[in-house]
Amino acid sequence: MFSTTSRSIKTAALALSLAIPAMSATAAEWRGWNIHVQDYPVSIAMESFMKEVAEKTGGKLTGKIFHNGVLGDQPDAIEQTRLGAIDFGEFSLGPMGQSIPETNVVSLPFIFKSVPQMHKLMDGEVGEAIGKGMIAKGLVPVGWYDAGARSFYNSIKPINTPADVKGMKVRVMNNDLFVGMVSSMGGNATPMAFGEVFQSIKTKVVDGAENNPPSYESTNHFEVAKYYSLTEHLIIPECLCVSKVSWDKLTPEQQAIVKAAGKKSAELQRKLWAEREKASMAKVTAGGVKVNMVTNKKPFQDAMKPVYDKFLAANPNLVGLVNMMRNAN
Predict the structure, then answer these.
(1) What does DSSP say about strands 150-154 and 227-234: parallel, antiparallel, or unpaired?
(2) DSSP run (H or E) holding 145
(3) pTM (2 decimals)?
(4) Which residues of 112-140 are buried (b: 16+ CB within 10 A; e: fewer)?
């Protein structure tokens, strides 16, 4: 009697132990990386994305988004996502350029004619071409987010022509293209962590930087750099990306759910971004910033020829993609 009961208990225990891995194989909790504060357009859209995925998968795929860059800085987080240590994140394509050449095309100055055109191209053939390069390096794009247009701001004077940049010390992101962009106008490009910019402008380590209106406003850079010149030289999209390691663990049905949720979240983010951009411009103007619109961009575009020549010489396989973008309406 005892031995039969013992065998029954062992059989039940074995069945339970086999069932637990089977259950965990069909359910997952993702970790998401985000550099922004919780009420930022990107953050709200990411939370919407994860909520949609959880609902549509019946709770089999849930996740927690770690805001404020608590899982590390952006370059490190991109690598961690490629390796699968982080399941998904929202990244600028700018810092990806060093390891994923296809993403560097969006960092070519003036490659996009406007933000609406960027949306159109990224939602079409251009986004597909760039996405293939990203997937090959371990990142699956599921939504193209908006980061607006980047323009120059500084503490000295308005910028109306490339000659106005000559001699200026300008903070740029860590990408050779951005260094070349400033150097081609005679400026001194200074790659620097974003968190160091405010103090560096205040102490005149650099004269200025370049960024979109919400970043210029939310970091209080406008308090120490009172000239904002709307060159709109860079329109760099951002990507809601899933680690290919995590992606490959999903069923085809779950992958379809994640893609649809990513696209929907991008639409929300773009709407929220446009609203935030308008509010940021109102705030910096009220704060005494002298804003000037650069209407004649041709001198700036002409100055970028060495940047394009060097990039295309180093990446001959991307000539077709660059020409597609430059010739698009």
Answers:
(1) antiparallel
(2) strand 139-145
(3) 0.83
(4) bbebeebbebbeeebbebbbebbbeebbb
